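Design request, tokens follow.
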């Protein structure tokens, strides 16, 4: 099968959507199918890398959006002139992972070349209004929701044979987002073996710690991911300041880049914890698994996740997780079995103190981390999506036959 994956996000950006597409591409390729990624990125920023050189990637030229939190995304004024790139790939199925710029190309190609279309809703974008435009979120949230649903999501849903969501949390909001009648829940998978702690020697991890200025015996609170407002990293910093400001035996390592990085550094300075907080900026995809091994516990306070792939990556790395309680991870984390939930900033600070006082709690949890996420392999993910493709193709043929009668 020849498969087109259409997305507004791909390398050099690092996000859950990018991980999902990467895993799907690799999993489907391993199953013997040929995949093509249609995306839009800044070629000047995307230095030669195996993520680009080793894959069938078609870059659709575009301009960056004029919003600070959307600078990693691009848009095009016309899409019809790029249809020739899709035609050359002779696709059997189109799988669109966005509702915006590249989705328009996917919809045009599906219609012009009679290719069945499958859509995955990765992002509950209504939750992001306050980060993109706080003024309109406050004064016209419902109007914005209705406008964007009508302009972007509804057209994709209407044209899709089948739609995919990563969790029940997203499925429960299908009416809000105007999804179609045929919606399936398929959790995104990861390359579990890539994060196995046995891939790294003790000396290798100690060497990386020393390079970052972390002492051998320091307790490491870890965040890995995009540094943007919707991730609520400021909550982590404030809680850390409350719990560990005067504790020289603890350090907070923040791995990743994004639009809020400078503001977070300023906040750490204002809180008086800049000497205990380490920012790495953007780290290459290949190096990320090694950085998970630096953490004693992984932190995340985001409430905008649809699945939380970094949580699964942390567990695959045998790292305990301390995360904001949220519907999207209720099926991943069993409280005090393979991770710990917190409820808000004050509760996080209390649990940070508890963890530092009672390390035996973490020892018990560590034994249950990696074995709790075996079902989230990229192999299972790809096979499940492939079944959807086959269903969509048959459904598309049946609808066409009905239309001819």
């Amino acid at each position: 099968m020849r498969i087109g994956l259409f997305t507004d996000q791909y390398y050099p950006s690092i996000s859950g959507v990018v991980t999902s597409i990467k895993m799907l591409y690799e999993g489907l390729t391993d199953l013997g199918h040929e995949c093509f990624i249609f995306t839009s990125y800044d070629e000047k920023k995307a230095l030669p890398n195996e993520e680009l050189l080793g894959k069938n990637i078609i870059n659709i030229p575009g301009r960056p959006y004029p919003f600070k939190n959307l600078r990693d995304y691009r848009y095009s004024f016309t899409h019809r002139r790029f249809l020739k790139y899709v035609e050359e790939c002779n696709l059997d199925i189109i799988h669109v992972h966005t509702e915006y710029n590249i989705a328009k190309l996917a919809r045009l190609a599906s219609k012009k070349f009679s290719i069945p279309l499958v859509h995955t809703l990765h992002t509950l974008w209504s939750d992001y209004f306050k980060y993109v435009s706080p003024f309109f979120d406050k004064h016209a949230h419902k109007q914005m929701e209705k406008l964007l649903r009508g302009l972007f999501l509804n057209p994709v849903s209407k044209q899709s044979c089948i739609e995919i969501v990563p969790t029940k949390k997203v499925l429960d909001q299908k009416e809000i987002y105007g999804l179609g009648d045929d919606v399936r829940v398929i959790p995104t998978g990861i390359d579990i073996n890539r994060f196995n702690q046995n891939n790294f020697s003790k000396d290798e991890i100690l060497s990386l710690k020393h390079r970052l200025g972390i002492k051998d015996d320091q307790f490491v609170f870890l965040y890995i991911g995009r540094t943007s407002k919707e991730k609520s990293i400021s909550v982590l910093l404030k809680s850390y300041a409350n719990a560990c400001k005067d504790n020289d035996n603890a350090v907070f390592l923040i791995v990743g880049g994004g639009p809020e990085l400078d503001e977070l550094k300023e906040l750490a300075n204002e809180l008086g914890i800049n000497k205990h907080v380490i920012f790495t900026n953007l780290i290459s995809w290949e190096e990320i698994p090694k950085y998970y091994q630096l953490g004693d516990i992984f932190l995340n306070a985001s409430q905008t996740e649809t699945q939380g792939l970094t949580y699964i990556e942390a567990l695959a790395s045998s790292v305990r997780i301390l995360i904001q309680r949220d519907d999207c991870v209720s099926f991943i984390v069993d409280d005090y079995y393979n991770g710990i939930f917190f409820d808000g900033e004050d509760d996080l600070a209390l649990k940070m103190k508890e963890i530092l006082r009672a390390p035996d709690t973490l020892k018990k949890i560590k034994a249950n981390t990696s074995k709790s996420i075996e079902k989230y392999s990229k192999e299972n993910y790809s096979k499940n999506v492939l079944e959807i493709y086959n269903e969509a193709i048959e459904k598309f043929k049946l609808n066409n036959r009905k239309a001819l009668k």
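Comment from the thread starter after seeing the answer: thanks! The radius of gyration is 22 Å.
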